[in-house]
Amino acid sequence: MIANVTYIYPHTFAICTLGDADLQATLAPHLQAMEGFAELIVLPLTTENLGIEQIIEFTLSQPQLNTILLCGKDAKQAVGWLPGASLLALQQHGLGPGDEHRINHAPGKRPLLKNLTREAIEHFRNQVTLVDCIGEQHLETITTWANEQAALPQPKAPTAFTGTLKQDAVEPTIVTADGSITSDPAGYVVIELDPDSDNPLLCHHYTPQGQHTTTLAATSAKAIYMGLIERNLVFRLDHAAYLGRELTRAETALHHNHPYEQDAAISLSTAAN
Asked: From CA 211, how far away is CA 110, in angstroms rounded?
């Protein structure tokens, strides 16, 4: 996930490797070692709902960003999850009518953008051009494209997004292990780190329909875990066990100054001590 981007992004373009983790792992250091690309962003995109929402949020926070190259393998294509193709459909066709916020003509299973306003989504569509190179995995081809983009003249001053981003903005609730708790419906949870925050462990809860209900922020896995349990945000014991494991992994990654990705293995061999 892309959390709390506050820096000024130096480029007018970015590269999105979709769900191709192998390509991202090789492409990011390859490009960032090149002169002029030290801060070039290589974005993942693994889901056609929350993932696209995160891409939109990041883009709107960087008004000079006007081009994103889509490359690599589209995520979970075998089971019908197509975030790259769904993102292209969003730019071309926008959202359908109604509160469901379904992307028109998107081929994925659940291309629903429930947490962003139509105003934010339309600004994204006008701000960014998507370059469709889905399936491209050759470093040389992608590097050539990046060099061509860097050589283009700078565009006129961009128009920053000043409207309402979230449909129902959710403020983080700072929790402690013995904090007071209120009830909420069960759903699923997304865990991420914000290392620069005073409460760097973040846990976002969503209803089964994909609606963001709350964000818990804390300094320890235990505090987040107790916040979830005591707020009735977890019903099943197996889900609780899974979240306990993932929160511990996230806290371990934080302590070792290492990136964390939910459900992915952490390699501490390259972590800072």
From this structure: 13
Q: Which of 121, 151, 181 is the last residue of a domain?
A: 151
Interatomic CA distance for residues 87 and 53, integer angstroms: 10
Of 252, 206, 239, 244, give the one whose Cα is nearest residue 223.
244
| Spatial contact of 48 and 81, defined as CB atoms under 8 Å apart | yes
Burial 29-49 (b: 16+ CB within 10 A, else e): ebbeeeeebeebbbbbbbbbb
Q: Do 185 and 250 fall into the same domain? A: yes
User: Which H/E stretch holds residue 57?
Assistant: helix 50-61
For residue 140, report the phi and psi dihedrals to the nearest 5 degrees.
-65, -40
Structural tokens at position 38:
């030290």
**Domain limits at 117?**
13-151
- 254 and 131 within one domain: no
Q: 112 pairs with which residues across the strands? A: 102
Bridge partner list, 42: 15
CA pair distance 259, 271, nearest whole angstrom: 9
Q: What is the pTM of this model?
A: 0.72
Q: Is residue 159 part of a domain?
A: no
Average pLDDT rounded to a whole number, residues 15-33: 90
For residue range 46-99, what is the model confidence (pLDDT) as tens digits?
A: 889 999 999 999 999 999 999 999 999 987 655 567 899 999 999 999 999 888
> In Å, how far from its chain's centre is CA 194?
13
168 is a domain residue: no
Residue 268 pLDDT greater than 70, yes or no? no
